[in-house]
Specification:
heterodimer; A: about 280 residues; six-stranded mixed sheet; B: about 260 residues; mainly alpha; 9 helices; elongated
């Protein structure tokens, strides 16, 4: 399925003919997709299908074996380091494991991108950081160290850091993991607000279908190195294609094997030929 | 036989590591001008690798000097030259023992700490996070540690030498009864600032650069697992010790 829909006139990210082989395993085999500007797009798929790898390609952290990737006019596969850094200044990235700087307090973690790139008065830095921490509900935790936070709190601090410069594009890699229902709801609201008020393009890598349905306007389903399905959440949820049906219904049987390739179970347990 | 068969592959692997380390050194040197804006981070690292190493350097310096004084007084007495104890202690320290033992202690104390810290930053995606925030980890994390190692190693060697001479003085003068004036006057008359002291400083600078390069390289390239960081830390001590002794031999041959 070709995911370069005709109605996407202003794509902030264009991927063409992406091919990636890691450790002799083909991760992507001819992926084409367009991420529309100013919308929330979800990238979904079974574990290990390369969703995070795709984000690493898009941000220029990992070079593909073949294909072209253009982000806001920058060809990231050919861009040099200064060009990549210039592009990354416009991108907020929420890492799967938060990746907070462990020697810095919560406040200093969120202030880090501001201090590195902008010469702002300390008072303004303080106000911006506290505003972002308030948005994720952790203004009171500003002086805590990352080691004093729970996994969900670390994720919210990382989210505050990702949005502190009001980037053009935000990539959320598994933003809902470890969040309680209250925090999850607030983060969903925040993602939607950032998109609606500031027009920030958002890419959401997630497994939580119910949460994704609430905010995403488009879903790309990646499986077996290709875009297996693509469309709006409602249409995709009713899809009858084997990939879509199995993934959204959570069935063990289908084109995506639940079990990692293994020898015969009974033979491995030494039960072959045993009396029933 | 397996070991014999594996030798070429191991040699090729070691050569590749040396090459990669050389490339890493070039990358660090190119990042140094950009790291100058992180002066506060460099000062913080000087405190961590320098000031925090003072206790072990001073303690070991005192004992090394004491043992050196004891041994040399005993040996030189047999030839009627006990008066030269202070001179030989000072020459041995300034030319060889000071820079070399300081580098070995530095590798064990500060080198392992740098490797573990940078390795854990790699394992917990902190270096990737910096990359994604358009902050060069080579300029922000690696170069300040490298500069701190190069700056502090000669200073630590000076402290080591001072404490070692004090230790030798305590043993030979206060304990064994060598004349205080003889100890100091023979030493000051025989030790040359340029050929003895400054050559030792050159060695310390080289050891500082090599030990910190190895420590940062091992941390930066460590596999992102607890076992990977543990092995990298061990390799830092082993490779730094070998490199220190090998470079010492080469530099001694050229500087003599």
């Amino acid at each position: 399925m070709n995911a370069t829909s005709a109605n996407v006139n202003d794509a902030v990210i264009r991927v063409r003919g992406l091919r990636t082989v890691l450790n002799a395993k083909t991760i992507f085999d001819g992926v084409d997709l367009d991420i529309p500007r100013g919308r929330i797009t979800a990238i979904m798929g079974p574990s290990g299908t390369g969703k995070t790898t795709l984000m690493r390609h898009i941000t220029g952290q990992l070079a593909p074996d073949a294909g072209d990737i253009t982000v806001d006019g920058t060809d990231v596969t050919r861009a040099d380091r200064p060009a990549l850094f210039a592009l990354r200044e416009k991108i907020g990235y929420l890492f799967q494991n938060s990746a907070l700087l462990t020697d810095f307090s919560v406040f200093e973690n969120v202030a880090f991108p501001l201090r590195q790139h902008l010469k702002l008065p300390e008072e303004l830095v303080r106000n911006i950081v506290l505003t972002k921490l308030q948005a994720v509900g952790l203004r009171g935790a500003a002086d805590l160290m990352p080691s004093e936070l729970s996994g969900g709190m670390m994720r919210r601090v990382a989210l505050a850091r990702a949005i502190v410069r009001d980037p053009m594009l935000i990539i959320y890699d598994e933003p809902f993991v470890g969040l309680d229902p209250i925090a999850l709801n607030q983060i969903l609201k925040l993602i939607r607000t950032l998109n609606q008020t500031l027009g920030i393009t958002s890419i959401l890598v997630a497994h939580e279908l119910a949460a994704v349905r609430q905010v995403a306007s488009e879903i790309f389903l990646i499986a077996a190195g290709k875009i297996a399905a693509h469309g709006d959440p409602a249409t995709l949820g009713r899809g009858e294609e084997p990939w879509t049906k199995q993934f959204f219904a959570g069935e063990a049987d289908g084109p995506v094997p639940f079990h990692y390739p293994a020898p015969d179970y009974a033979a491995q347990l030494g039960l072959e030929g045993a009396a029933p | 036989m397996n070991a014999v068969r594996r030798t070429p592959a191991m040699a090729a692997d070691a050569l590749a590591q040396v090459g990669a380390c050389g490339v890493f050194l070039v990358q660090i040197l190119r990042a140094v001008p950009r790291s100058l804006r992180y002066v506060r981070e460099t000062v913080r690292q000087i405190y961590f690798v320098g000031a925090m190493s003072l206790v072990i350097i001073m303690t070991c310096g005192m004992f090394v000097g004491a043992v050196l004084g004891l041994q040399l007084y005993d040996v030189l007495s047999r030839f009627g030259s006990a008066a030269m104890s202070g001179t030989v202690v000072a020459l041995a320290l300034y030319r060889e023992l000071g820079p070399v033992v300081t580098a070995l202690l530095f590798a064990g104390r500060a080198g392992t700490s740098i490797t573990a810290e940078v390795g854990l930053m790699r394992a917990t995606d902190q270096l990737d996070a910096m990359e994604m925030m358009a902050v060069d980890p080579l300029a922000y994390v690696v170069a300040p540690r490298f500069l701190a190692g190069v700056i502090t190693m000669p200073l630590l060697a000076c402290v080591f030498n001072a404490l070692a001479i004090l230790g030798a003085h305590v043993v030979t003068v206060s304990w064994l009864g060598l004349d205080n004036g003889t100890f100091w006057s023979n030493m000051t008359a025989s030790v040359d600032v340029w050929t003895d002291v400054i050559n030792g400083v050159w060695k310390s600078l080289a050891f500082g650069a090599v030990c910190t390069l190895i420590a940062t390289f091992q941390g930066y390239t460590a596999p992102p697992t607890s076992e990977g960081v543990a092995y990298a830390t061990t390799r830092t001590v082993v490779f730094s010790s070998i490199a220190t002794l090998a470079i010492d031999f080469v530099m001694t041959a050229f500087l003599m």
